[in-house]
Design goal:
Number of domains: 2
Distance between the termini: 51 Å
Helix content: 10-25%
Shape: globular
Number of helices: 10
Order of helices and strands: HEEEEHHHEEEHEHHEEEHEHEEEEHEEEE
Strand content: 35-45%
Radius of gyration: 23 Å
Largest sheet: 7 strands, antiparallel
Low-confidence stretches: none
Number of strands: 20
Mean pLDDT: 96
Structural class: alpha+beta
């Protein structure tokens, strides 16, 4: 179909010819390879070379957004024709705002690593290395996934914006098993070919599997809880999503009754949206509206500093865009927590009666406005007493509120871990954290 910029420009031109007021498109061509690991062996290796097209159209204040993987440009143009035929039957959008005029954009450096491209031909050997590292511990097996990505992304708008950049990414997770009931999981992500990061991932998962054998039950109640980067990363994804101005406007945020400048958490917590970090895979020089991205604090020293905006939500709230578009919903790029000054051993030593939770899933909201949620802790969970780990325990459930989580942060670890897997879709750099007085209930199968 031609180069990404050429294809994007053709789509925009054709949409304007068909009577739309504005058009924008993001054309992404990718090369991906993934290996699945089962029973400590690389099994399925899959390759993809998809071309995806994100499309944005407006007509008299009406907004149309779609995502496509067309077999040809004609197929996509037929879809645009179908939208054109129903365009005026759709209600005007209360969130409509014109696309911004083109602005200078400095491309971020360090988002592309040729070593990832080269490693795609030997991903099985890379997975075997991960397996070998995990089995340095006395485990029975591991399972997991390793994926290498190359992406070329191009944005064109009818206002004259033309931007493109190349990126690479490495992502993996492994779950280790040690009989009779031990299991541990960890993940890793980077824009770089970082083998040491993958080895650490395998080592941590295996160590937790061995240490979590022979689990026992504990009584429900209020505990001090150390959350691993895997768990805290999952919870922060929900919390940061609530700082999207779209979530606030739609009534899906516990920050609805807060203003920028309000204290919303322990002063020890600082969360930053970092599209300009060269290390995390969602790094981007520009958003879907063509604005130059920049790093920004979301919560700084416990104070809410930023709601994430595109031009639409910014118009509704009479502020400037934060370059986090999403044509409809502003989203974070990469979530980074400012490190504290405590080592994990020091955090554990400060707990009189509590838990260390290393992994979780099935996080569910009971009330967005109140921040009420529950999540199931899985894999390695440890009971901590008088500053030391006493025993591994069976699955439990955290049933509390995000407001309580934020307010009761006592310690933040000094080491950050690159986290991304299916329960943490936004790439993040996260530490271990200690949170006081968390409600723990039984996990009912």
């Amino acid at each position: 179909m031609g180069s990404e910029i050429e294809v994007a420009q053709k789509i925009v031109d054709e949409a304007i010819k068909r009577g739309f007021d504005e058009a924008a498109t993001v054309v992404t061509s990718s090369k991906r390879v993934m290996v699945k690991i089962a029973n400590s062996e690389p099994t399925v290796i899959q390759h993809w070379t998809p071309i995806t097209i994100e499309l944005y159209l407006t007509k008299d204040g009406r907004v149309f957004v779609g995502s496509y993987e067309p077999k040809s440009l004609d197929e996509l143009l037929n879809g645009i024709d179908r939208i054109q035929r129903i365009a005026l039957k759709v209600a005007e959008s209360q969130l409509y705002a014109p696309l911004p005029e083109p602005v200078p954009v400095k491309l971020a450096e360090g988002l592309f690593d040729t070593r990832i491209l080269k490693a795609m031909d030997s991903i099985d050997r890379l997975s075997e290395r991960i397996i070998e590292v995990a089995h340095r511990e006395e485990i029975d097996s591991i399972a997991g996934m390793l994926q290498l990505n190359y992406v070329r992304e191009a944005l064109v708008t009818s206002k004259g914006t033309q931007l493109s950049e190349d990126k690479t990414a490495l992502q993996g997770y492994v779950r280790a098993f040690a009989e009779p009931d031990g299991s541990g999981q960890w993940c890793f992500t980077s824009t770089k070919y970082d083998v040491s990061g993958l080895e650490e991932m395998a080592s941590i998962a295996a160590r937790y599997a061995v240490d979590s054998k022979n689990r026992v039950d504990i009584e429900p109640g209020i505990y001090d809880v150390i959350l691993s980067p895997m768990v805290f990363g999952n919870l922060l994804e929900y919390i940061v999503d609530m700082t999207s101005a779209f979530s606030v406007l739609m009534g899906l945020s516990m920050f609805m009754n807060n203003e920028v400048g309000n204290s919303v958490s322990s002063e020890k917590l600082t969360i930053i949206d970092e599209p300009r970090t060269p290390e995390l895979p969602n790094a981007s020089s520009f958003d879907f509206e063509g604005l130059e991205t920049y790093n920004k604090p979301i919560i700084e020293d416990g104070v809410l500093r930023t709601l994430l905006h595109n031009t639409k939500t910014a118009k509704m709230m009479d502020v400037k865009s934060t370059a986090n578009a999403g044509w409809i919903k502003p989203n974070p790029w990469n979530i980074v927590v400012k490190p504290g000054d405590a080592k994990l051993d020091e955090i554990i030593s400060s707990v009189r009666r509590g838990l260390l939770i290393t992994n979780n899933w099935y996080t569910r909201m009971q009330s967005y406005v109140d921040g009420l949620f529950s999540t199931v802790a899985r894999d390695a969970i440890f009971y901590v007493e008088n500053g030391r780990i006493v025993r591994p325990i069976n699955k439990i459930r955290i049933a509390d509120s995000f407001l309580n989580i934020l307010k009761n942060i006592e310690h933040i670890g000094k080491e950050l871990y690159n986290i991304q897997w299916w329960e943490v879709s936004t790439p993040s750099k996260i530490p271990y954290v200690l949170i006081r007085n968390i409600r723990i209930s039984k996990h009912i199968i």
